[in-house]
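Why does residue order matter? Because the sequence determines the fold. Keep that principle in mind as you read this record.
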Amino acid sequence: MSEETPEGFELFTRPSPLLDPWRPLYVQRQSDRMVLGVRLREPHTNSRATAHGGLIAALADQAMGMSCGVKLHADGVQVTNLWTTSLSIEYLGVTKLGQWLAFDTTFARVGKTLCYAECNISADSETIARAHANFRVALA
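Structure:
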């Protein structure tokens, strides 16, 4: 297991008091989405030394919301904010310290008032969770 950051990822510097204790976080910018990544460390874990479900939910929410924003912007829609209106997670596996977690939005349908997104969460390229969310769009 490599401790290196996978190719194409850079430091994620967007301010967020919630995310600050979990840094360093990374982002890979795509034309239609933003993929978040993190190397699993002790502050990310529960008492069993696996990724805490709250970490997975928060980072999936962040990745999907940002990806909806990227897609809206690409469609020429001026957005001031996106609010999560629903979020569900299916936990399918566990992680170990040192694994690379990636949060990749695999589908997003955007509208002028609502966005729908799905996220695949993987640990060293193996799916460990899936997330689904809806976001309310606030237009400029």
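Helices lie at 53-74.
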